[in-house]
Amino acid sequence: MACVRDKPVSGPPTSLSAPHLRISLAFRGGLCPYSRARPEKDYAFKGNFVLRDLIANGQSMRTISLPRGRQRLHAMPTSTGYEVREDEIYDWDGRKRGQTPFTVLQHTISGTGRLRYENRNYRLQENDTLLVLVPHNHRYWLASDERWEYFWISMNGEEALRIHKSILSISGPVFRLKPATIDHLADCSLRLINGAASAGAASAIAYEAAMALYDDVFGSHAFAEKLSAMQPVIDHINANLDRPLPVADLVQISGLSRAHFSRCFAESEGLPPAEFVLQQRLQRAAKLLTKADFLPVKEVAILCGFEDANYFSKVFRRLYGTTPSQFRTTGMYANLRTPARRGVRVSDDET
Questions:
Q1: Assign residue 299 a region: left if phi > 0, alpha if psi is -120 to 50, beta otherwise?
Q2: Rg for the chain (alpha carbons), in Å?
Q3: Residue at a domain's end among 197, 219, 241
Q4: Cis link prior to 135 (omega < 30° from 0)?
Q5: What pTM was computed for the model?
Q6: Residue 349 falls inside a structural domain
């Protein structure tokens, strides 16, 4: 069967606005019989057999859109597929893919891709895995004289984004995975391509893929315990961004000593507590500025926990390179994963 393109000239679509669950498929080759997860121990002993099945299945992609009004899922795939790109336009700018946050996990099977991530250049080669968050200041593309073979899984959802942000903070956007993990991710992609017609089934596979990546990168039960131990603190922060959030209160919620809490929090979330709170405040401000344009900037500042509008504008500009008012006009949205790297430092009690 000939491959019929039903997508843009490059990369995975990410629409979330269809009136019903929409499945879009383009195949070259037959369907693969995989329809359920294999035990993790299977992946460890089978080599990259599932990856070979994915390749044998032929170039294909699937996009999934949830109906409006559906209760949010913690992890939801937006697209997945396997492609070989050569002598064609393939160029994705993470600042020009809309305001809805999602991630792209893309594994290089062969050939070469290019990535520019926060002004650092990467050459993606065989067995390199790419992870990026959108929207964000990055670009990945195929050079005119090169070939790139890869498979990808894109997803969104609060938990998927949180897990992937933690991985990015530790490993950066490019890393190497164990063969068993690559096979596991390929299996998740195959099952999404060939089945998972319901939102719940698709969500389960997306979460499985996120956790397979998590287990490979962190590989530690101790770290997993730290991550889960911080969840009540994270929930408290997100529920009270319009109020003062002194670190002393966060320590009390965690039940740990201050030193142990600060260390565990930074390992879990990739940022010290005070900087994480600042990040969350500014992310909320960015959303309000673009989605609630009837609110004055001063009121946005108050709703995000900034009593001083001038301080809010100063911090916002350091991170975005523009004032809140200008940001609202342009509609620009960016990832604030590491505010301190852009020169914004806060003391533990400044939150």
A1: alpha
A2: 21
A3: 219
A4: yes
A5: 0.55
A6: no
